[in-house]
Structures are given as C-alpha cells and as structure tokens.
Amino acid sequence: MQRERFDLVLLPSLMANVPHDIFITHIFTRLPVKSVLSCRCVCKQWLRSLTQPEFIKMHVKAQRYFHPKILFGPVVNLGYLFHPVLEPFNGAFYLVDLESGLDAVRLPGFSLKDYVITRTLGYCNGMICAEVLKKSAKYSFKNRHLLFGNPSTGVCKILPEPIDENCPRKLLAGFGYDSSLDDYKFVRVDEYSRNPHIFSVQSNSWRTVVGVSDKTSIEPREHTDYNLGSAFGGSIYWLVACSNMIVGFDLKLEEFSSVPLPHDMQKDKLSLELVGGTLCVINVCQKNNEVVMWSMSKEEEKGKNSWIKMMAVTISDINFGFCFEIYPLSYMKDGKILFCLWHFEGNSFAPLFKGNSFATRKLKFVLIDPKTKMVENFTIQGFCINLFNEYTFQCQTTYVDSFVSPY
To answer: Which of 58, 134, 181, 401 is most buried, judged by most C-beta within 10 A?
Structure first.
C-alpha cells in the first residue's frame, strides 16, 4: 500500500514531459474506476481533469473495448426477501473482468438501510435501474420503487413515489441511453393503455407518449409482471407474444419498430440478449435437441432483414439437467462464447431452502466453441456459488465500469 502511494505521488513529476491530454485520452480512459479514483487523489490538476463530463464520456467509450466485464446483480425470491442469510448481500453487485482475471470482485454497491433490491430491470453504460421494496412493506405494486445507481461508485437515488399503485401485471420494461439528449431513460408499457411511460434521469420526471404503440405487437411473451428489454444502439428491444417478431422502441424518436426473427427459427423457447455489442437470440429447441444462437447482422442494424447463425449445439452435449435456462455472456479472445445456465438436479423443481441447507438449483458456466461445438466447464472464483444460486443473481453481459451518475 505504501509503495502504491509512493508511485502515485511521483507519477506527475515522472510524466511531466508528456502532454496532459495524452494522459487523459490514452491512459486514464483505459483504467478501471478504482484506479481512476486513486489517481484523482494525486493532485488538483488530475482531480479537475478526471471529473470533467468529457472525461466520463471518453472513459465509458474506452471501457467498452478494453475491459469487457460481467456484472452479477440480485434478483430475490419473493418468499425470502428478508431472510437473514441474504441480508448481508442486499445491494451487492459482483464484477468479473474477463481480460485481467476470472475473480468475481464485490463492488461498493449501495448502502440500503430501508430498502431491499428485488431485481435489476436494466443497465446501460455502468448505470443500473433496479426495483426496490421498502423493508417495512409487503410486496405489492404500490410498495415498489425504482432505484437508479452506479454500483462501481456506490452513488444511487431512489424515487420517492411508487412505480405505480394501479399498474397492471404485464409490462414491457427497459432502461437505455438517449445520446441525442445525453439522458438515461426507463421505459415501461402496460398491457392496457399500451402507451410508453418514460422516466428521464436527467429531468427526474415521468412523461407519457400517446398514440405510438401498435396494439397487436407489444403483448409480453411471458405471464410475468415484467418483460425486460435489451438496450442497444439507442433503442430498447423486446421479444413479444407474436413469436416471429422483436419490438424496438427508439429512445430519441420515441416510436416503436419491429424486427422479424430468422424465418427458419424454431419458436420453442427464445431469449433476447446483448452479447459483444450485438443483439442475439437464443433458441432452445427441444424438437431438434439443440441450442441455437443467432446474431443480428450489420445490415439488420441498418434496416435490412439479415441474421447470422453463430452456433448450434446439441442439448445433451451441454449437460443441463432438468428444466434449464441458458444465456450468453460474452465473446472470449479465442472466439469461444461464455454462457451462464441454470438447471435443477433431479426430476422436479426443488424448494428454495431445505431446512438449513440449500436446494438443488444450480448455476453453471460453460464455454462453447462455435466452430468445433466443443463444450467445457468454466469457473469464476470469488463468490459463494450456493448463495448465488438461492439469491438468483442476474448475469448482466457487456457491463461497462464507469463514473456515470444518476444525478
């Protein structure tokens, strides 16, 4: 610790002959948040430069390319919201840097005394949007609130008003970035009005956009209270009840669009994920006994209907067990794809807890080579895997470690 402090103190004089803007543009932007925070303490010039809005934007952009990361955020089983075993992990987020190591490091997270995080609703450029519940309240729509925060810096804000007291159960919801206004927005669309309700982090207010929805295309696929979207390219995308379609909402134009799925895709079980900066559809096809991953091509991003089949792997090769879900997390340097999967051992769903021990729900990581179709187990160190199983942590792909603030 003393040696590190000594080096930081000498650093400005050692680099006095190097132009200051070179440090800002080509060096500091590539450092993780923790290192930049240390550099801010070296001198007033660095503190001033490393807290400018321009640096924060450059840092976000650089981190996308130089430090691919995976974020683990909480999703609590509602029957065990206030279980004493899980209390120390309320507001906890874990980060895995795929470039520098495979250890899960706990981030500062959020100090939540009166609330508990029930799930993460979205993430963009290092800022997350989560649903929180007052500890003194029962779980219901009128007691739920929104949290916006940066788990790397620990800065967050909770909206004082509930999400919506009269909110219906089926919702499209998503969180993304509008670059035209430099604003982060949370969007929800309910099953009745079909009008997008938008919360602007910049203006700290809600507004409703009327008359832009297609009433035949935005029905959520699942019978759950949230159908969470993926933010990509200034829009938020969802899989909807019309199983051959993806619906997008442009955060700048505030209008819906539709993207057809691959015409020869089986519609057994689909999920929409953001992997390596590209929208991907995962198709678990029981009929063909395979898992197929499709990636949106560059032509599709420009409005043309084009998809690329990235891989097709036999289900039995992955060895899921009973009742599984599979999500791609990231592309690795060697071309392999890192996947996270949940599965149950045995022939039925296990209860959350069995006495004082954990049940048989399992979290597993695997690497799949799209070319050879070889599957190998992958281990991430640094957290209790059983606790992750029961706390049901979400794996957020392509997370950006940043200084973006909800204020």
So the answer is: 401
